[in-house]
Amino acid sequence: MKLSGRLLLILAAFVASFHFVEAQPGLGVGSSGLTVKTSPTGKFGFIGRLYFDVGSNNFIVPQVNLIRWFINEEKAKFYGGFGLNAAITIDDGFNYSSTGLRLPLGIEYFPFESKPFSIAVEGGLLLNTAEDYNTLGFTSLVELTFYLGKPNKE
């Protein structure tokens, strides 16, 4: 599949995910780059991320994750799910580098009673595939998120 087809697949998953979850958007930043999330008030959620590496590698990695909340306590929420990502080099135009399958597990902590702000820690498996190699590795991140609007009713 060419680069444009893979990006369209990731974009379609991003758009479709908002139809399956109650979306109270959250915007965040962390070790994984920029984040867009849905509020953890339902059983299912969405996490979209965009990671940039400018320097020696020069690439961007868009990522979409569909998650399920397994433990939904007042102050902390535990989730797991699956996701897709694509690494795109930007040296001489946009060139596809690899595609990945993610299996994230994470915990999101809400330090304030009104829940507009959260701190998340996530880890998981990542299978990257490219034309000439496949790799299986571990991924981890720390993230700060601010949720917009009023929380949805649980």
Q: How would you characterize the overall build of this protein?
A:
The protein is mostly beta strands and 154 residues long. It has a single domain (3-147), classed as Beta Barrel (Porin), CATH 2.40.160. The protein is 12% helix and 60% strand. It has 1 helix and 8 strands; from the N terminus they run αββββββββ. Strands 1-2-3-4-5-6-7-8 form an 8-stranded antiparallel beta barrel. A hairpin with a 7-residue loop joins β6 and β7 (117-129). The longest helix is centred in the first third of the chain and has 18 residues, at 3-20. It is elongated. The N and C termini lie far apart (41 Å). The model has no long low-confidence stretch (mean pLDDT 81).
Structural key phrases:
single chain; 154 residues; mainly beta; Porin; 8-stranded antiparallel beta barrel; 1 helix
Structure summary:
With 154 residues, this protein is mostly beta strands.
List the helices and strands and how they pair.
Elements: H1 3-20, E1 25-30, E2 33-38, E3 44-53, E4 59-72, E5 76-89, E6 95-109, E7 117-129, E8 134-147
Antiparallel strand pairs: 1-2, 1-8, 2-3, 3-4, 4-5, 5-6, 6-7, 7-8
What is the 3D shape? elongated
Number of helices: 1
Find the CATH topology.
Porin
Write down how many β-strands occur, each being a DSSP E stretch of 2 or more residues: 8
Low-confidence segments: none
Task: Give the termini distance in whole angstroms.
Answer: 41 Å
Order of helices and strands, N to C? HEEEEEEEE
Please give the share of residues in helix.
10-25%
Derived structural class: mainly beta
Strand content: over 45%
Strand arrangement, major sheet: 1-2-3-4-5-6-7-8
